[in-house]
Each structure stands twice: as structure tokens, then as C-alpha cells.
Amino acid sequence: MATTEPEKEKRRLRASQKMKELMTLYYTGAKMAEGRDKKIAWITSGGPVEFLIAADVIPIYPENHGAMLGASKMSVELCEVAEGLGYSRDLCSYARGDIGSALTKKSPIPGGLPKPDFLLACNNICGTVLKWYEALSRIFHVPLFLLDTPFVHHQMTPESLAYVKRQFEELSEFIEGQTKKKFDWEKLKEVVRLSGESAILWKEVLDQCAHRPSPMSCFDAFINMAPIVTLRGTREVVNFYREMKAELQERIAQGISAVPSEKYRLLWDNIPIWYKMRELGDLLSAQGACLVADTYTSAWVFEGLETPDPLDGLAQAYTTAYLNISIDLMVERVLKLIKRFSIDGVIIHSNRSCKPYSLGQYDIQRLLYEKTGILSLVLEADMTDARVYSDAQAQTRVEAFIETLQNRMKAA
Amino acid sequence: MQEKEILSEFKEAAENSLDYLRTWKSRTGTKILGYFCTNTPEEIIHAAGLLPVRILSSPSAISLASRHLQSYSCSLVQSSLEAALRGDLNFLDGTVFPHTCDSIQRLSDIWSENIRFSFHWDVVLPVKLHTESARAYLTQELARFRTGLEKFVGHPISDGELKDSISLFNRNRALLRELYRLRAAEPERFRAGEILSLVQCATFMPKEVFNPKLKALLEASRAPQRNAASKVRLFIAGSVCNYPQVFDLFDNSGAALVGDDLCLGWRYFSEDASLEGNPLEALTTRFVRRVPCPCKHNPELDRGDDLLRRVEETRAQGAIFLLLKFCDPHAFDYPYLKDRLAQKKIPSLLLEIEPGSMPLGALDTRLKAFIETLGG
After folding, report:
1. ipTM summary value
2. How many CB atoms lie within 10 A of CB A285?
């Protein structure tokens, strides 16, 4: 069932256009700042960007760039550049693509990402970012600060919390050394407040999908997550998500749904397959299936960020990030999503590039089934390296999965 | 005992390590903890009256583990889970997972869901090693581990007991370093596979048994060497490879191994712990002073500098990178380390190890071609 163009137009979010403008402005501004007074820092997606914003440093996210390379289908070419230097094809494709881009300056952004003055890696998403940023540190000859967030097996220890808090102080001293300016703790409080506010708004945006039918799908969320990842802690992001939330509420009032006739409400696990967003979206939509929740975009819903001592909330939030907790805790979070979003089935992207996200998924799948009887499908793929993806196989598997869900619902 | 006899005793034990441990347990009643990776503070386990035993890859086919792990996880992770699920490790009383790489971290989760030993512990080591706060956190984490072990065994671990264990492990490390010095001086004395099985034994035999055996070997090795023909001197760097067939390739290639930077090698015993002061502080210092493995971050100790220094010290003519397929941390460091060697005109060769489908013939051809270019 093909959707007609005006139909599609009606379902297009105004926010997506606004987001493009916001991100263009951000990247243009960052490019303009290259080589001038303002410092530029490259930071991991789970890093405490609040410190950079408070110090008036421009944050740049190679992972967001990695996703852009994937979506613009430039990844494979740039991964091959890194592979030519000896980086194994089995390594994270964001890292390979980004290293390839750093060396060749090829990118959807003319001239590539603006050069960093320093690097900030937080290992709450993986150990890979450490190795990736060590490589960047050698390529650009700039210093690297590692924020080390001890992995949470079952529960966080007070010792690890104290260690992370202490590192925030060290980070502020490191930033002072880079900017030659005194770190402004009052400004940090304000930035954390805005960051907390935008995280709550982001949660409320995602929560609109609890409505049946859902006013947007995860594909919209994947696209519109860029500001919460890259610019949280700024006023613009608060405004952006406030508008987006209003737009979604308006759609609910008007009865506009993301998928023409929503029959199946699905949850997505792992990073999107950036180069197949449109195809997967159309495939699911044609089956009346809508991705209404995912474990990826909800990772930026930092709760309890604002505490009397802002370092407490920050340490807690950054250490308990979704990829920094053991699978029993991940299952708890997924179960909450299943309940809140009335999920009928789960699509699990087993992502060759991301071991901390993917290893353990088979057990998560089993545990979810044992606890709720929910069915899931595992798609073997990669977030940006299209060489390991098969269209035909994905289509057959998704269709078969939807059929199974359909039979199950009929039987019920 | 003669050199040859001792070596074959080690080889025999390494080939049948699980039987060795089962027998040891039934004979002595000692509880055994399995652990992953050289970052584990074995001394604390030993001081608790337990035998620490490193879990290594086993060569069997993967079937049970494929229901829990994707094919893109490394063979160490896959085959150790397979062994545990199959019941091969049932003699263990528990498992210890130190924080190393993403895969081991998730293996711990999967293990705790599926393998029911009475003890399961994650030593959540810091990743950075060069700051005071990391150091303080590490000491606290070691103390937490000590307390966990005390609860498990039901009695306290005194500082005196810890120091005795440190002393025993230091002795073990000193002997192994002595062996490596001997190998660098007379590389033709040992076959590559002999050194592998010896180091492997060091990771599971009680040190009380292992140390006198190694000492006897070193004493027996004072006699003139059996074969003094000069061979091409090679250095191996990489992660963990306990497949004897791979080491046999070196022996058959006309080259001699003069040193290594491997998890199952030099990194296991390069650094001692002090017997002065607080023993947990001493273990912390040992840990932060070690040249880091690629899972750890220490901008003050560069792995490239260390590799060059050791390659030069051992007068190696070339280096082999022996990397496990899907081992991300090592794969990330490879281009840098390779370039550092190339800048000093030291040729290197990458051999990727994938036990399930190991093309031994192709590895052999590549190795021989490489050695030929070095004049062997």
C-alpha cells in the first residue's frame, strides 16, 4: 500500500524542518569559529556537555557526524580510508568513518567537522570511545580528557559516584587550562537547569507516542534527537522541544498519525540503521506497524539532573546511562517502555558496530519473553556500514514477524 | 630433573588444565575462582585461601553459547561461555570479572544470568590510571572486593596474609621474568609452544607448586644450550592467544621468539607489588605503574614507547601482531603501534586469530614470507 504524496506531506513534522535549520546554524557557527578565539571541543554523545557550554566552548559530536555520514551514504567510502590505515573492518563504523573523514576532510559538512582544540570522552557508552578519541588525540595533536564512569553492575556504588564527582572538578580545571578562563560554577548551574528542562521536554515529546495511534514514529525521533544530543543546556533546545511537543499534541487533537492505519506498536532496540531509515520506515508503515518507542532516543532522558549540588545529579545521570548498566537493569527499563507505550512486539537491531549495546541482547530478548510473553525479532546489521546489510533478508524477516504478530492478535 | 622433562610436564599440565584442577580440588579441597584478564588482583583471592585460575579459550566448537552471544564477539568470550554452559567449568566455585573491555563486561551480565556458581564478582576497575582520584577509587574497589571475598569464605583476610600472597606472587613474577631474560639471551633454547604452555601453567597452577618447578627449570637450563644455530629474532605483540598450533608455526618457520607483549605473557608478570605499607595501596601502585593494556588509559605511559623499547632491548628483527579477531581495544591500537615500529624501520606482520576457522596454511605461508624478508 503506497502512501500518496499529499498523505505523506500531512504526516511530515514541521519540527524536522526547524531541526535542520537549527543544526545548520550550529554547524555553520562552529565552522566559522574554527581557528578563532572560541574553543572547539569534540565530545562523545553521552558526555557532560554542560561543562563545555558553561565555559562557552563549542561542542562537536563525532557520533552525530557518524550518523550523518551513514544517512548521506558516505560511510563506506570513509570507513575504507581508515581500513587502509590498518583499522580493522570489525571496529565501530562511526569511529572508522569519522577517522576517515578527519583525514580526508570528506563530509556532508563542507571541509569536514571543525578541528578540535581539545577532546572530551566519557566511557559511559562504550570502551570504544576511549580508543577512538586516543586516535583523534594523535591525529590532531590535542589533549584528551577522559571522564571515567565505572560500569554499574546491578547497583551503583557510593565509591564510583564519588569518583565521578571528583572528576567533574578535574574536568573544570582541565577546561580552565584550555580556555585560560576561570570556570564559572554559577553558569554551570544555569546550564544544568536548562539541560534538565530540555531532557524533561524530550521525555514529554517521546511520551506523545503513548497515544494510540502514535502522532510520530521513532524515525522522526531519530532525526529530531540531534538537538538534545548536541545542544542540550541551551535555551534554543528548550524552545525547540517545547514547540515540537505542541505540534505533536496538535496532531493528536487532529487525529493525524505517523502510520496511516496503525495496527502494531513496536519498540526498537539499538542505534538506527542510518542508511535504511526510509526503506525500513516504508516497510513497516505498509504493514500498519509503527515504531512508537526505542531504547536509543530515550537514553537522553536524563532524570533528576537538578540537585542542590549540581554535581550529584550529573554524576548520577551520566553514570547510569543506558549502556553503562547491566542487562538486568536494562530489562527493567525496557519493561517500563513496553508498558507505557503499549508495545506489541520488539525489533532488536544486533549492531556489529556496537558491542556494549548488542552483546546481551539475546538474553534480554529471552528475559522480556519470560516476563511478558512479548515477541521480538533480531535484525543483524550495522548502524552505518551498509556492506553488512541485506535488503531482501530484512524485508522477509520483518514481514514474517508482522505476520506472527497478526496471528497472535487474531488468536487473542 | 632435566630441562626437557620439566618442560614436558608443563606442556602436559597445560594441555589438560581442567583435569589438573579437578584433581587438585579433590585432593586438597581448595575452592577455585575463575577469572578473566591479567588486571585481576589475584593476590587478594589467594590471601582468602582460594585458588585463582585464569579462564582461557578452549578450542571446541561453539553451539550453546551462540544462543547468548553474537558471532562478532571474540573467541575468548564465546568459548569460555561455551565451556561454562557445557559444564566443563563446574569445578569452579565462582567467577571474577575485572573491568576490561565492552565484551567481557557484557559477558559478566550474561554469565550471571545463566551460570550459577556461588560467587560472582565484578571488580569495576577504573579505566584511567594516571590521576589521584582514579587511584583512590581503585584502592576502594579493591577493598570492596576484599570484603566480598571475606563474606564468601567466612573469615577475614588479614594484611599479613595479603603480604604473604604478594610476596609469593612477586616471586612467581621474578621467576617468569628470569625465564624471559634467558629466552632473549638464548632464544634457541625453548620452543615457542614450550614458553606458551609454561606461562599458561602460571595462570592456573598454585604458585606454591609452580614456583619450585620453574626454579628447577631455570637451574637445569644453566647447562650449555642444545642448539645454537642462529635464527631470525621475532617479537610478538597482542592480546591473548593460547592455541599451540599458532606457536608451532613459529617453531617451524625458522624464527625464534625473543620476547612478547601479550596478556598471556609479559604483561602478566612485568610489574611487582611492594611489600611495604598498606597491601591494597601496594596492589594499586602495581596496577597503575604497569604499562597499560589497551583497555586502560594512561597518557603518562605510552604503549608505543614501551613496545619500541622492548623490541630494541630484545634485539628483535621484526614484530608479529597476534590479534584475536573482534578484540576491539587491541585492533584500535594496532595502526599506531605498527607505525611506531615502521618509523624505526622495524618490519611487522599482522596475524589475525580466529579459532573457529583458522587458516593455518595461509598463516604459515605469510609468516614464512615475512621471515624471508628479514633474511631468515
Report:
1. 0.95
2. 23
